[in-house]
Design a protein that fits this description.
By secondary structure, the protein is mainly β. Helix content is 6%, strand content 47%. The relative contact order is 0.12.
């Protein structure tokens, strides 16, 4: 019994040490997405309030942060490609140069179909374009009587418009459909990342409503994992797929070899679009409604 008690104590101390290792930076109102950009520094989209034009991009320098770019509306996903930060902003995509100048890359009229809620952004391996998800407006997913409460998957009150898809946007402004809408396994894609070989890119998406992690290649979509509802960021590294959940405040690791899902953290208010720092072996996670950036060690 004494041995068991000591073992439990050691396990508890171990988890406490892991929790204590999490670096946290208070950054402001509604941080949404993080990526590494100019000078190897981390950049963060800041939604801020509800007024048009009050959105910003901040840059982290150690534990300090400052405004890098202004004048966005509701900036969400962001990627660094071709010497620009590329950001989704409601129904348009913007690019930002090294001096913080913001210009429109593609606006609503440039898309082949009506766009309603552009969200995550991932750099293509061609170095000249990005993938952008349109998850459709998420109001249909939520029970208005609960706080960030998704309707049950089989609820007849959750009627998907089936417009969720992924676009490819080139740095010259050309827009094309990368993953078409209409698949019930992916009614509301949020997170997107690129895996596979450079010449044979596979897109990996997290569906916000169903919790499906899906892969798309050769015009075929398949479900890789299930059960991660509210999927926001999705990134792959080795055999692992890392997923954050905005409404549940969780971060998971799914092992493609063992087919097992592990909860890495469940103490976020709203875990948003993280940056996978492969070299630092950590996730840099915006806790949107808490106004924090959390550095979560992976080992």
């Amino acid at each position: 019994m004494k041995t068991l008690s000591l073992l439990l104590l050691a396990t508890s101390l171990c988890f406490s040490a892991i929790a204590a290792d999490k670096k946290v930076i208070e950054i402001g109102t509604k941080p949404e997405s993080v990526c590494r950009g100019f000078g190897g520094k981390l950049y963060v989209t800041m939604i801020n309030g509800d007024e048009p034009g009050d959105g910003e991009i901040k840059v982290l320098d150690g534990d300090k942060h400052k405004v890098f770019a202004k004048g966005l509306n509701n900036p969400k996903g962001m990627a660094f490609v071709g010497g620009f930060l590329v950001v989704s902003d409601e129904t348009m995509v913007r690019k930002i140069d090294k001096k913080g100048k913001v210009t429109v890359l593609a606006e609503a009229k440039d898309f082949p179909k009506e766009v309603t809620f552009l969200n995550d952004v991932a750099a293509s391996r061609d170095g000249q374009s990005v993938y952008v998800t349109d998850m459709s407006h998420p109001k249909w997913m939520f029970d208005p009587n609960g706080e960030r409460k998704l309707w049950p998957i089989d609820s007849d009150k959750a009627v998907a418009p089936m417009t969720g898809c992924v676009y490819k946007v080139a740095l010259d402004g050309k827009v094309s459909v990368a993953v078409p809408p209409g698949d019930k396994r992916m009614p509301g894609p949020n997170g997107v990342t690129v895996t596979g070989k450079k010449s044979e890119e596979t897109l990996l998406m997290g569906d916000f409503f169903t919790g499906n992690i899906v892969a798309y290649a050769d015009k075929k979509l398949r479900v890789v994992a299930k059960g991660m509802r509210g999927a926001d960021a999705v990134e792959a590294f080795g055999s692992k797929i890392y997923v954050s959940s905005w409404p549940l405040g969780k971060v998971w690791a799914y092992d493609r070899k063992t087919k097992k899902t592990t909860v890495l953290a469940d103490d976020f208010t709203t875990a948003a679009d993280f940056y996978l720092d492969r070299k630092g072996k950590q996730l840099v996670i915006p806790d949107m409604l808490a106004g924090k950036i959390v550095f979560l060690p992976l080992e």
